[in-house]
Amino acid sequence: MIKGKVSGIFGNTGQIISEGNTYKFNINVVNGTVVNGDEVEFEHDGKQVNAIYGTNAIKPSVPEPVKAEPVPEPIKTEPKKRQNISKRLLDNDDREFLTEES
User: Fold this and answer.
1) How many domains does the chain have?
2) Is there a domain that residue 13 lies in?
3) How far is CA 97 from CA 24, 56, 94, 100, in A?
4) Using CB atoms within 10 A as the burial measure, which of 44, 46, 55, 74 is most buried?
């Protein structure tokens, strides 16, 4: 919302000055009460004033921005290596074979 000063109300129309710009409005867009010289908050779309929030106006509540929750990264696990049992037995085998001689 932009802040401005009501510079004149004439019947059903009025004018707001804000940051060196002037905006004309219809009294139908006023929420609350306004008189000449009031500091007000207002909304506009570049072409026309959409809403003016004067004294005792109920301003629309702006919802809090939704914070994105961090997505946990998947835990990377390496697949278990299969052990070749027969190879392990052969590598560690220090037995002597007995053979029969005839």
Assistant:
1) 1
2) yes
3) 109, 105, 10, 10
4) 44
Domain CATH for 10 = 2.40.50.140
Amino acid identity, position 91 = D
CB-based contact 28:17 (threshold 8 Å)? no
Has residue 62 been placed in a domain? Answer: no
Q: Is residue 85 part of a domain?
A: no
Q: Which domain, by its residues, includes 45? A: 2-53
Q: List per-block mean pLDDT (blocks of 10 residues) for the chain, which spans 102 residues.
A: 88 89 90 89 86 84 79 80 64 68 66
Q: Output the pLDDT for position 39.
A: 92
Parallel/antiparallel/unpaired status of strands 49-53 and 39-44: antiparallel
